[in-house]
TrEMBL record:
<dbReference type="Pfam" id="PF00702">
    <property type="entry name" value="Hydrolase"/>
</dbReference>
<dbReference type="InterPro" id="IPR006439">
    <property type="entry name" value="HAD-SF_hydro_IA"/>
</dbReference>
<dbReference type="InterPro" id="IPR023198">
    <property type="entry name" value="PGP-like_dom2"/>
</dbReference>
<dbReference type="InterPro" id="IPR023214">
    <property type="entry name" value="HAD_sf"/>
</dbReference>
<dbReference type="InterPro" id="IPR036412">
    <property type="entry name" value="HAD-like_sf"/>
</dbReference>
<dbReference type="InterPro" id="IPR052550">
    <property type="entry name" value="Pyrimidine_5'-ntase_YjjG"/>
</dbReference>
<dbReference type="InterPro" id="IPR011951">
    <property type="entry name" value="HAD-SF_hydro_IA_YjjG/PynA"/>
</dbReference>
<protein>
    <submittedName>
        <fullName>YjjG family noncanonical pyrimidine nucleotidase</fullName>
    </submittedName>
</protein>
């Protein structure tokens, strides 16, 4: 096993429980804006929003979608489906959603235990495609900022995962070579393929055991606590 110096981690749905926190925030927005006028159940609204949001983020990862279009379109789309074409409402929904979302503290199961374990052995860094205005607030709300020596955000440097240059920037900030680092992430495309193409070993956090149709990662786990057996 390589003697790693640094462990890089993705933030959303690797450390910070984006799925749970996002659903809580969206339910508050659904209630506050009386979106039951358009969607009789929250579950229907959540499904419609989430499917479109995933599609838009996949485009954003690869530079085929701007941040400005993403944050408006993901809320405008569900409204348009029910005959409401209101861009200003979509923008207000996004602003209030992000405000609620960034204050929520829930972490992925096992994340704090893993961070406690890792920080005693390695320097830690975050590499995230999230937005500046929310990622730092999420880190503060969940009380995990002290674990990390560097936080590299695509929104700050203008390069998204999986592009190798965001990983190179993280290596540069840590003053290490690719062989000295390993990346932990839940998104095969952004985290695993991106690290792989930069020569960084990877631990694919795959709690749903999604099939891997491309090159196998260096390691794969279904629980964060399994990482302790690897590092």
């Amino acid at each position: 096993m390589s003697e790693y110096k640094t462990v890089f981690l993705d933030l959303d749905d690797t450390v910070w429980d984006f799925t749970t926190n996002s659903k809580i925030a969206l339910e508050e927005i659904y209630r506050c804006y009386s979106l039951d006028r358009f969607y009789p159940t929250f579950d229907l609204y959540y499904k419609t929003y989430s499917e479109k949001n995933t599609e838009l983020w996949n485009l954003y990862h690869h530079g085929r979608m701007t941040k400005e279009i993403l944050v408006t379109e993901r809320f405008r789309y569900p409204l348009q489906l029910v005959g409401v074409d209101d861009t200003e409402l979509a923008k207000r929904l996004d602003k209030d959603y992000l405000s609620v979302l960034s204050r929520l503290p829930n972490l992925v199961m096992g994340a704090r235990e893993l961070l406690d374990y890792l920080v005693s052995k390695y320097t830690l860094g975050i590499i995230s495609n999230g937005f500046n205005e929310t990622q730092y607030r999420k880190i503060d709300a969940s009380g995990i900022g002290h674990y990390f020596s560097e936080i590299v955000l695509s929104d700050e440097i203008g390069i998204n995962k999986p592009h190798p240059d965001i990983f190179k920037e993280a290596l540069h900030r840590m003053s290490i070579e690719a062989a000295d680092a390993i990346m932990i992430g839940d998104n095969y495309d952004a985290d695993i393929r991106g690290a792989m193409h930069c020569g960084i070993d990877q631990i694919y956090f795959n709690p749903l055991s999604k099939p891997i149709e491309e090159e196998k990662p260096t390691y794969e786990v279904t629980s964060l606590l399994e990482v302790m057996k690897i590092l």
